[in-house]
Design brief:
Rossmann fold, 2 domains, two-stranded antiparallel sheet, 10 helices
Amino acid sequence: MYPRLIFFDVEGTLLKKAIHLDNGKVAPSAWTLLAERLGPDALREEEETKERWLSGDYRSYIEWMQDTIQIHRRHGLTAKVFSEVMDSVEEMPGVRQAFQVLRAQGTVTATISGGFKALADRLQRSLRIEHALSGCEYFFDPGTGLLEHWNLLPTDYEIKVDFMRLVMKEYRATKKECVFVGDGQNDVWMAREVGVSIAFNAHPDLQRVSTFSINQSSGKEDFLAVVERISSQPATERVS
């Protein structure tokens, strides 16, 4: 039985994450990929922001994003480099086939990400996702190609849950009619908001609170396993 609504994390779930940049503390993302592309000094500064986040030095997720944006500006991020890095992030194997199944079943899909709107837009278009929340959108000067402005949305833990609740309210869907799929430690709050949650090759903290865990070997990930897990269980099932 397929649920009415499925919420997905993006990087590490629908998109592959840069394993070589994993510091074991904060999951690597396109923010880190951009810093790597801009050089060792930019990458060092990016890692320092992660330590500040973990230490609670930032008052909000937006403040952390603002700090990282200044790194990108100082090191001369251009529209060309940004596009190349965004294009380099690959889809998880099996994602397109999985969404074909979900569309055929009439399931409404939504993505929730603290990352770049460029990645969310790409997925939304290719996978025909109905709703998407993302943290940051960049605007580049058409003449110089340099970063000119940005749009930031609060996408920390509480706001992500608020977005889920808003979409659920719009569809008049109960928690038991909804599923969440993610991989990160910061997905724990969303996993608790739905009837069924799936930890996909996930952090141990997420696995502990999720209804199901799917663990696959590195390099052998297949997102179709998520749809197989969903289809084999009633959407109302929940384990403590």
